[in-house]
Design goal:
heterodimer, A: mainly alpha, 12 helices, 44% helix, 4% strand, disordered N terminus, disordered C terminus, B: four-stranded antiparallel beta sheet, 32 strands
């Protein structure tokens, strides 16, 4: 309880994605969105009923550059409220909604992280509610990105056709390829969910991984650098149905992923899971999911210390199945690498658990949709 | 202006607590509860202390005053503890206090923090024995050789002393944080509820309890809801309800089975899809559930509203009262400053005609069920003159702000009233702001 807190004080963080608002063009709004002073109704975003027409605001070129930009400068310490206290009712253009969802996600993750340091330990109820917000924001974000991608794809198809008509050169394959390349490089998305992703820019993914390693101090991440970046997000799908994708993505790297340690508070049984991919309902797995990695259980004798991160795992491993890069790097004050690696393992289990089972999103839960989150999650990670 | 309950006008009576604006964390009031006669009013705070106020004998010379509440007893109920196995600190904050019905001269109450429930006996001592044969008055033992006669000690009056002593400690039964306790109408048992389980205790037995509800999933990854509040039915000793973070209330009958995981009734109102937002799950989480005194209804409080349910109708509440609907568009900001997680309580008046709950800016709301009227009042030092009538307040949601109205943006979200209590028989209410306890009573005409 913030007794002495300023009136309507906001949760200021160093790692707010929206503070790198240059990336998410159009996502910035008026500042100073104090509850007490804003006239605006900071509207909530309606998840499934809202459709915003208009051109896509995301420029794939920007996204491509974003990670490098963000890695190279310090996150400005702007209050996290910028994108939330919007003026006017209703949501803005689709890019801004996605940006709002992003900042909401990062805020949720920071709140989850701050719960760990609270007196009295972690409250299950609060973390459950935070995870719901996180899930809702992620669902919206995926949906928005997919829609935007679809719109851009349609637009580009139209443009391509127009160009063809203009140039009277239907065999202008280079143009199409260039578009496709840029797309894949930028956001790693393909138009058809079934199509394998194009090879990523190796420099980009390597840079990402190096940055990840240096930030996290986590050795297990380095092996993932062998693989294209989107594969991280697809890892749950990979694990679930290795047969379908083995052509493109050898599954070796999965073994290098973190362990998840879960302490059952009642039985004091500690479960260590090698891959973290226990969850079975990966919605994009066409085949029945592979059996979970072997788990080692050991009974905790008295005197074994179950630290805070493990208690968090007990519950949050269930709820917060965000991607690995999703894990609270928006917080600026990470000094304890063991905490970091534990948090990685919490979120390393893949994305499937948090996605809803609605048919609409099951379609979206293609590899490409997941991969498209790479850009902004790298942004979070940079902080 | 007439308020709810006919011509009820609420007047300031007393305020307890420091005047300082600088609030010590330990002084934050965390629970307020009248006893069954209303003579005693107990408060618990974040520092683990319990303060009990007693209503004095009515002041005959000033009939318009009802009696005042003065401090009766103060004691440290819970201390901070450390769980070494899990490396967790256990807060001493008193989550709930529940009085037991009085059976003899002493008073008993249950107080709980996150992990441990304690039964306290509060007894008065107004006589002391004098004239021991073997001891001096100061307690030193006499030399037996000097004793030449025998006498019977007599009890002589002394200044009233109120003693609080812990009679039972019910510990180590909850893995998660205890959010509710409720004494059964059989006056022998009580329940305690944490996030995932509800245990049934006998007041006499501390080393074991029965687990009667367990919603912990086999795989914690499938957890979707937690228990937020639980209460026994006021008359039926076999019936209790528990509310969940998903906005459902389950009524269970202990006669049906030993483990009441299967509910007898499920009270749930379908969500309005047009109100769906990022925060739908948070604002639908029920923070408090209270049976009416007559046992026919129950009231639930979620973030924005109070709902009254008829126990015979499960599919929707019979009444829904909006507490601060103007906050619906502010949920994002409230999420940012954590106010969206505030757990408001609610209470019935003695004859179940009016319900009350708290809000922000030190406002509290009363809803008159019979007259379908509601009023917003404020607990503040500015309105603290003796018997000063409280003026109804109004919040302006948007548009032109009228005189005396407060705009939503001027509300102070650090001043919240989470805990309120209503005297079981009279129109006296206790309203807890952050660290002050306000007592209001209606004006006796």
């Amino acid at each position: 309880m913030k007794c002495g807190a300023a009136h309507g004080q906001f949760f200021s963080s160093g790692g707010d994605v929206s503070s790198g608002g240059d990336v998410s063009s159009g996502g910035d709004v008026s500042s100073g969105g104090d509850v007490s002073s804003a006239d605006a109704s900071s509207n909530c975003w309606f998840l499934f009923t809202h459709r915003v027409p208009g051109p896509a605001r995301w420029d794939p070129v920007d996204l491509h550059q974003a990670p490098d930009q963000l890695l190279h400068h310090d996150p400005p310490h702007t209050p996290a409220d910028r994108s939330l206290s919007r003026t006017g009712a209703g949501a803005g253009p689709p890019g801004s909604m996605a940006a709002d969802a992003q900042s909401l996600m990062s805020m949720s993750l920071m709140k989850i992280q701050s719960c760990r340091t609270q007196r009295g330990g972690i409250t299950l109820h609060r973390n459950l509610l935070l995870s719901y917000v996180l899930r809702n924001a992620q669902q919206l974000y995926i949906k928005e990105r997919y829609q935007e991608l679809y719109r851009r794809q349609q637009y580009e198809e139209v443009m391509t056709v127009c160009n063809e008509i203009q140039d009277l050169d239907p065999l202008d394959v280079d143009v199409e390829d260039a578009h496709g390349e840029e797309q894949a490089r930028g956001c790693g998305e393909d138009t058809s969910p079934r199509e394998a992703a194009r090879p990523r820019n190796p420099t980009q993914s390597a840079a990402h991984v190096r940055a990840a390693s240096s930030l996290l101090g986590c050795s297990s991440v380095e092996d993932c650098g062998k693989e294209p970046e989107p594969a991280d997000f697809r890892s749950c799908c990979m694990e679930a149905s290795p047969g379908a994708h083995s052509d493109h993505f050898p599954g070796d790297y999965i073994r290098h992923c973190n362990k998840t340690t879960v302490l059952d508070l009642d039985t004091h049984v500690v479960t260590t899971v090698e891959n973290g991919f226990l969850h079975q309902d990966c919605c994009c797995a066409p085949a029945p999911p592979a059996p979970p990695a072997p788990a080692r259980k050991r009974k905790v004798e008295s005197g074994c210390c179950a630290s805070d991160p493990e208690e968090l795992c007990d519950f949050t491993a269930a709820r917060k199945r965000a991607k690995r890069e999703n894990c609270c790097f928006s917080g600026a004050d990470f000094t304890d690498t063991s905490n970091i690696s534990n948090l990685i393992s919490i979120f390393g289990s893949g994305f499937s658990g948090l996605l809803s089972r609605q048919a609409e999103l099951e379609q979206l839960c293609g590899q490409q949709a997941l991969a498209s989150l790479g850009a902004w999650t790298r942004a979070i990670e940079a902080f | 202006m007439a308020g709810p309950g006919g011509d009820m006008q609420w007047c300031f009576s007393q305020v307890k607590g420091a005047i300082d604006d600088d609030v010590a964390e330990a002084d934050i009031i965390s629970t307020v509860e009248f006893n069954h006669t209303g003579e005693l009013l107990a408060t618990g705070d974040k520092g683990g202390r319990v303060v009990i106020f007693q209503q004095e004998i009515e002041n005959k010379s000033q009939p318009q005053f009802r009696s005042e509440y003065n401090v009766y007893s103060t004691f440290q109920s819970h201390e901070p503890e450390f769980d070494y196995l899990k490396s967790l600190e256990i807060e001493e904050k008193i989550n709930k206090i529940r009085w037991l019905p009085q059976k003899n001269a002493a008073q008993f109450l249950l107080s709980t923090n996150d992990k441990t429930i304690k039964l306290w006996k509060i007894s008065e001592r107004d006589k002391r024995p004098e004239g021991y044969n073997l001891k001096e008055e100061d307690g030193r033992y006499k030399d037996p050789n000097t004793i030449t006669s025998l006498r019977v000690p007599v009890l002589i009056p002394m200044d009233l002393m109120v003693e609080a002593s812990p009679r039972r400690v019910f510990a180590n039964a909850h893995t998660y944080h205890i959010n509710s306790i409720s004494v059964n109408s059989d006056e022998e048992t009580y329940l305690s509820a944490d996030d995932l389980r509800i245990n049934l205790w006998n007041l006499e037995i501390t080393d074991r309890s029965f687990n009667i509800v367990d919603i912990k999933p086999a795989n914690m990854e499938e957890l979707t809801e937690v228990i937020t509040a639980a209460e026994f039915h006021p008359h039926q000793c076999n019936t209790f309800v528990y509310s969940s973070s998903k906005g459902t209330i389950r009524l269970c009958d202990m006669r049906a089975s030993a483990l009441c995981d299967k509910h007898s009734k499920l009270f749930e109102e379908p969500e309005d899809p047009s109100n769906r937002s990022f925060f739908s799950e948070i604002i639908s989480s029920i923070s408090d559930v209270k049976f009416s005194h007559n046992g026919r209804y129950m009231m639930t409080r979620d973030y924005l509203s109070v709902k009254i349910w008829d126990l015979n109708m499960e599919n929707r509440p019979v009444e829904t009262h909006q507490v601060h609907e103007y906050l619906r568009s502010k949920l994002c900001s409230l999420y940012e400053n954590d106010c969206i997680f505030d757990k408001f309580e609610c209470c019935w008046n003695g004859n179940d005609s009016v319900v009350m709950t708290g809000s922000y800016n030190n406002f509290f709301r009363m809803f008159d069920r019979g007259q379908r009227r509601d009023v917003t009042l404020e607990a503040s030092r500015e309105n603290s003159k003796p018997m000063q009538v409280l003026k109804p307040r109004k919040v302006c949601a948007g548009g032109k702000r009228k005189k005396d109205e407060i705009s939503v943006d001027s509300l102070d979200f650090n001043k919240k009233i989470l805990h309120t209590a209503w005297h079981p028989q009279d129109n006296i209410i206790a309203v807890a702001t952050t660290n002050n306890l306000y007592i209001f009573q209606d004006k006796v005409n």
